[in-house]
Amino acid sequence: MNEALKSFLDTFHIEYEMDVALSQKTWIKTGGTCGCWITPHDVTQLTELCRWLYKEKLEFEVVGQTSNMFFHSTCSPTVVVCTTRVNDYSQEGDIVTCGCGTNVMRLSKDLMEQGYAGVCGLTSLPGTVASAVVGNAGCFKCSITALLQSLDCLLPDGTIKTYNCKDLLLSQRSSAFKRGELEGVILRVRLHLEKAADMEEEKCKAARSTQWRKLNQEGPAKNLGSTFAVLKMRKNLRNITAFCIAYMGNKLRIGSYRRLLKKGLLRLYGYHRIDAYVSDKNVNTFVWRDEQAERMFPIYKEMMNKIYNHATLEIEEKI
Length: 319
Description:
Layout: H1 3-11, E1 15-21, E2 33-39, H2 43-55, E3 61-63, E4 69-71, E5 79-82, E6 89-92, E7 95-99, H3 104-113, H4 129-134, E8 138-139, E9 142-143, H5 144-147, E10 148-154, E11 160-164, E12 185-192, H6 199-216, E13 228-229, E14 232-233, H7 237-251, H8 257-269, H9 293-307, E15 308-309, E16 312-313, E17 316-318
Parallel strand pairs: 2-5, 3-5, 4-17
Antiparallel strand pairs: 1-2, 6-7, 7-12, 8-9, 10-11, 10-12, 13-16, 14-15
């Protein structure tokens, strides 16, 4: 471990661990060994830490809950900064200021209970507010970026810049941060809130969205949600055949439409060997079921690029 870094962390009382197996830290229990896993407890510690790392030109990764990140076993970063403890938030009028590591689910549930609109679809969305901004994540017509007023970002030169929503150049499941057009560490996120017209209806929407996710998506363990973004299926005979088989099988009560579609696609494209690693509920969800999953993931990506046009990864892959 870099002795200067150790001295800095000790001086500022910032929590850290050395030589950490990423499989003990990451969402899907994968990855190599991290030289130093650092956990600042507030925005001040995060700011001073990252400013020092930038100044010393030390490479580092910033992560939240890692619920959208796949670390390969070959990935052994020198320094990882985890923001999950930077999770305080405060409210002044209709503005909520959140630490970058604030949990989206917890925040959304709290705001909904207070009678605010625009969060009912986020009450079962994993991840932090910063990661939700970077990935422009959302579901059920709700998103953090739709509420975004501004954010504070620590730039590589050590200054702090405030961006508004327009600065992020948002696109479907993406932003200027995700595309690498903007650099830096998001420190705080400010959300502009409005009271819901019908609180009971908001609660009903939240309940329906949670139920839908249970029926149509895998649980949170061993997967990273949707693997690809902006999928458009190719118009070819194999895809049409798979759709017809799934439709007829569902009508005849042979099985669920989604499971039959998955089975048909895997057979028709010759990828039935990865059946156990593709969700029965959504072919766009890969399941890290066991130690063989890392070897199966490139095969899964190959298959998805044959089924879909320009399949673009939504998850972040660290090799």
